Structures are given as structure tokens and as C-alpha cells.
């Protein structure tokens, strides 16, 4: 992505150095030269943010139905329901995988359906259900 | 032959009985021309919910997983055979597949709605569904349709 900036207005970063070298090369800049230095230049966007990654993609984890400790972190301790994507902060594909594996584990009688296993209640929280990343459906 | 994984829950019983039950379930795979790759014992556990099968209510079970290769035509027969076994509380046969390569799309999902692809698609469908309105500046001095 290119980002057009008028070089004379730039005061920090590598562009400033570029402007200085130009001025040293031509001590008495002609009218044509000054016009050139005013021209917008093509650079990549210096304000672009890093790509956001979900917690499972970042650590390269594929959820499995036998990994009940991990899966129960995506389950509500009050109702046993699986938290939605707006709460878990997972990407679409990973959320789908997690939901699938939780249902598999519940069918294999490895995981409860109406509550969270008592031994996992003290596990660290991956997200806060009170502060969803997108507005709540209800 | 594709790979499968059998998740077993056996009822609570003495060790010799448990061994014979496990042997029986494993042998039925071999009888149908399958190959057993791995047998895993996850131990005796309290079931997360009570299960009633074969006229009994179970609250404790022995968890096992068996990884095996078998012809896909034999899977239904295996499941049917296990469902008749009164020592088996629950059985699930899953196909083992290589997990698909996933590229994280969270960055695109967190963009404001106007920049999200699915929202743009939704807007386009909505615009398509809108009824065409008669344009009054068409040069006609009367309304051409029924009112």
C-alpha cells in the first residue's frame, strides 16, 4: 500500500534525512529544484498496524476433542454453553473447529454440557465475556 | 484404508472383565480386516452426566481410544456390533484427517463494517433486491403505470 506524503512537511524518520541530503547537494536550490522537493513521494504506509492474529493461530494450536482442558476454557461456567466469536476473539475457522471439537467431546462423555468441569473452574481466563469485541446480540 | 478413531466408554467393572471387553472390541476390528494402530487408556473417570443404556444408569466409566485403519464399508457394522455390547456405554467412530491449513482472518474480521467483505456482499444483495422506482424526470408528462 502506497502512502503519499508531501516531503517538505515531513519532520521525522528516514524522509527527513532524504530531504537534508538533497539540500546539501544543491546549496542554492533553483526554483525548479524546490518545486521537485515539494512533490509528493511514494512510500509504504508508516502507520500501518501489525496483522492481528487469534490466540490459537498465534501459538499454532489445532483443537482436539481429547484436549478437554483447553476446550473447557471456551465454555461458560454458568450454563456450559460455548462462547461466541465476539467473546472468544478467535478467527472464523478456529471458532468453527473449537465448536465442533467441544460437541464431539460432549458426545464422548468427556465434557459436561450444562456446566463447566469443576476441576477447570480456576483455569486462567482467555477473554472477558463482559467485554465482547463486538456488540452483544441480545 | 482410511484411518479412524474409536472413542469408547466402558462400564465400571473388575480388571479381568475390562481386559476381556477391550480384547473383544479390538478383535472385532481385526475380524473385519482392519489394522489397529494404537490403543490409549484414559483411565476410570466420573462421567460428566449420567448415562442410561441397556437398562442401567452409569455414573462412572472407563475411557479408551482405539486408532485403527479399516474399510469404510465396515464402519457401520462395527458401530452396530458395539451398540449391542452391554459393556460399552458409549462409542463414537471419527475419521482421522489431516487438519486443514488455516490462515488467520481475524485482521479482516476486525475491520470496520464498511471494509468487511461479507458486509459489502450483504449491501450488494440488499441493493439488488430493492424494487426499481419510477423516475419522474423521464420526459413523460404522465405516470405510465397503474396507481
| Amount of beta strand of chain B | 25-35%
Structural class of chain B, please?
alpha+beta
User: What is the total number of structural domains of chain A?
Assistant: 2
The stretches of 5 or more residues of chain B where confidence is low (pLDDT under 50) are: none
Which radius of gyration of chain B do the C-alpha atoms yield? Answer: 29 Å
Question: How far apart, in Å, are the first and last alpha carbons of chain B?
Answer: 69 Å
Number of DSSP helical runs of chain A: 6
Total number of beta strands of chain A: 2
CATH architecture of the domain at 3-95 in chain B: 2-Layer Sandwich
Mean pLDDT over the full residue set of chain B? 92
CATH topology description of the largest domain in chain A:
30s Ribosomal Protein S18
CATH class of the largest domain in chain A: Few Secondary Structures
Q: What profile does the largest beta sheet of chain A have?
A: 2 strands, antiparallel
Helix content percent band of chain B: 25-40%
What does this 3D model show about the protein?
The complex is a heterodimer of chains A (138) and B (147). By secondary structure, chain A is mainly α. Chain A has helices spanning 14-25, 31-38, 55-58, 68-71, 85-88, 92-107, and strands spanning 2-6, 40-44. Chain A folds into two domains: 2-44, no CATH class; 55-120, 30s Ribosomal Protein S18, CATH 4.10.640. Chain A contains six helices and two strands. A two-stranded antiparallel ribbon of chain A has the order 1-2. Chain B has four helices and four strands, in the order βαββαβαα. Chain B has helices at residues 15-31, 75-84, 106-109, 117-129, and strands at 3-11, 35-53, 56-69, 88-95. Chain B has a four-stranded antiparallel β-sheet, covered by helices on one side. The radius of gyration of chain B is 29 Å and the shape is elongated. Chain A binds chain B through residues 51-54, 57-58, 62, 65-66, 89-94, 97, 104, 106-114, 117, 133, and chain B through 7, 9, 42, 47-49, 51, 61, 63, 65, 89-90, 92, 94, 99-100, 102, 104-107, 109-110.
Amino acid at each position: 500500500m502506497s502512502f503519499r506524503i508531501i516531503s517538505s512537511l515531513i519532520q521525522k524518520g528516514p524522509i527527513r534525512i532524504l530531504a537534508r541530503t538533497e539540500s546539501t547537494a544543491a546549496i542554492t536550490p533553483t526554483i525548479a529544484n524546490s518545486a521537485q522537493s515539494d512533490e509528493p513521494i511514494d512510500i509504504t504506509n508508516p502507520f500501518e498496524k501489525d496483522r492481528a492474529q487469534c490466540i490459537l493461530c498465534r501459538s499454532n494450536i489445532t483443537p482436539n476433542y481429547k484436549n478437554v482442558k483447553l476446550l473447557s476454557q471456551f465454555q461458560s461456567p454458568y450454563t456450559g454453553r460455548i462462547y461466541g466469536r465476539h467473546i472468544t476473539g478467535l478467527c472464523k475457522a478456529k471458532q468453527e473447529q473449537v465448536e465442533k471439537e467441544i460437541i464431539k467431546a460432549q458426545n464422548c462423555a468427556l465434557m459436561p454440557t450444562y456446566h463447566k468441569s469443576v476441576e477447570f473452574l480456576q483455569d486462567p481466563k482467555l477473554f472477558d465475556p463482559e467485554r465482547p469485541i463486538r456488540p452483544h446480540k441480545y | 484404508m482410511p484411518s479412524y478413531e474409536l472413542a469408547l466408554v466402558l462400564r465400571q467393572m473388575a480388571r479381568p472383565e475390562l481386559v476381556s471387553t477391550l480384547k473383544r472390541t479390538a478383535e472385532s476390528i481385526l475380524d473385519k480386516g482392519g489394522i489397529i494402530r494404537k490403543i490409549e487408556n484414559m483411565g476410570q473417570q466420573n462421567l460428566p452426566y449420567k448415562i442410561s443404556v441397556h437398562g442401567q444408569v452409569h455414573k462412572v466409566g472407563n475411557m479408551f481410544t482405539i486408532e485403527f485403519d479399516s474399510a469404510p464399508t465396515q464402519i457401520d457394522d462395527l458401530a452396530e456390533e458395539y451398540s449391542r455390547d452391554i459393556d460399552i456405554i458409549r462409542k463414537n467412530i471419527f475419521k482421522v484427517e489431516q487438519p486443514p491449513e488455516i490462515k488467520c482472518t481475524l485482521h479482516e474480521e476486525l475491520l470496520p463494517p464498511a471494509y468487511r467483505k461479507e458486509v459489502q456482499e450483504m449491501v450488494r444483495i440488499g441493493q439488488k433486491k430493492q424494487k426499481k422506482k419510477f423516475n419522474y424526470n423521464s420526459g413523460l408528462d404522465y405516470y405510465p403505470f397503474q396507481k
